[in-house]
């Protein structure tokens, strides 16, 4: 990463706050070329927002930091690989507006299979997305990736789109968040341009729609999406979708749409395990040019289990602070800098907290959960609470057994194995599990 840009980000962090910084400015990649600073935005939408909201301030800051003015350029693409002509001169698309039929693709150039770290939790999803990219419309259609927030679904979806375009630069890939689909449709209804809307969405080779749970309860949208889906499907055009849970579990999604979604392949993306979290951190650090050792990666991976986005946020904060203070990122520095954040993540994850959360969720009394009673309505939640305790705390099997009314460590081990199997076989159990991980570590 350009040193100048790093210093600029450190200043902007205190002005804008972490969320704004991470949403708009951290995704930019920077390269210095003579006295010019080129900022690469992952897509035209980010480019537009940065230009409108932040560019003037960035210009002033650069001048303050370096004592002289810099030429500042904004482009779509990646600093590692200079963008091709089509990407360098995009037609910016406004928020909520789908790109026009010229098919300026709006994929995030940073999200590729190369930058995606594979682990047990996402192996299947990655393999399926690659298959689809190599064989659009023919391998699995639709491909649906589902799972909790910040686990890499969007990344994989863009990676598939990027690979399709790498293999065939003429391939028309359109990525949209589901709110954008809804927004475009409302606009088309308002301006009586539904024919154009239909044509726009049906003329692509691959349609990628993110977070389709937002379609729930929006009947007209679902109706239109249903027809778009059918048209694309019949013409063997690829459809890739993401959802924050197994679609059959999304309330107020039309049954016939749910059924269509099941025609292809649905793959769960699960929270990464410790080793994958550490590997992701090291890969992200390398990508961003941030020097961290394995010890720091392990510290963060151990303490932040919620999702990859949170891990990345912590890394970004560390990088900005280390640069600001001119210090290396050591374990001590990370512990000091992220003290509050790490404390928040650690706070929720105690055995009593897990027991209470599980009891509340399944509406059973805490004292029953800890009792010796073996009725199924208690036994399953108890097993889940034990398995979560093993997963989320540092306690040993005997300690966990003790905390559950003085049970033997083999009972805890059995619970962990049972829940693992159930998570593999039963989408509902998988969803409950992810929900707990979110509540307890989010
Ligand atoms: N396995 C991985 N390897 C590298 N980066 C990852 C991986 N998983 C997630 N990430 C990164 O984590 C961040 C969040 O991922 P992404 O936006 O794809 O999540 P998501 O599952 O689509 O979440 P949401 O449902 O909230 O949109 C991205 O920066 C992404 O690159």
From TrEMBL:
Gene Ontology biological-process entries: DNA replication initiation; regulation of DNA replication
Region annotated Domain III, AAA+ region, chain positions: 106-322
Pfam families: Bac_DnaA, Bac_DnaA_C, DnaA_N
Record key words, sorted: ATP-binding, Cytoplasm, DNA replication, DNA-binding, Lipid-binding, Nucleotide-binding
Subcellular location per the Swiss-Prot or TrEMBL entry: Cytoplasm
Renumbered residue ranges of the record's region Disordered: 76-99
Domain Chromosomal replication initiator DnaA C-terminal: from-to ranges: 350-419
Gene Ontology MF, one: ATP binding
Region (Domain I, interacts with DnaA modulators): 1-79
GO cellular component: cytoplasm; plasma membrane
Ranges for domain AAA+ ATPase: 139-270
Role, per record: Plays an essential role in the initiation and regulation of chromosomal replication. ATP-DnaA binds to the origin of replication (oriC) to initiate formation of the DNA replication initiation complex once per cell cycle. Binds the DnaA box (a 9 base pair repeat at the origin) and separates the double-stranded (ds)DNA. Forms a right-handed helical filament on oriC DNA; dsDNA binds to the exterior of the filament while single-stranded (ss)DNA is stabiized in the filament's interior.
Domain writeup: Domain I is involved in oligomerization and binding regulators, domain II is flexibile and of varying length in different bacteria, domain III forms the AAA+ region, while domain IV binds dsDNA.
Quaternary structure, from the entry: Oligomerizes as a right-handed, spiral filament on DNA at oriC.
NCBIfam families: DnaA
Protein name in the entry: Chromosomal replication initiator protein DnaA
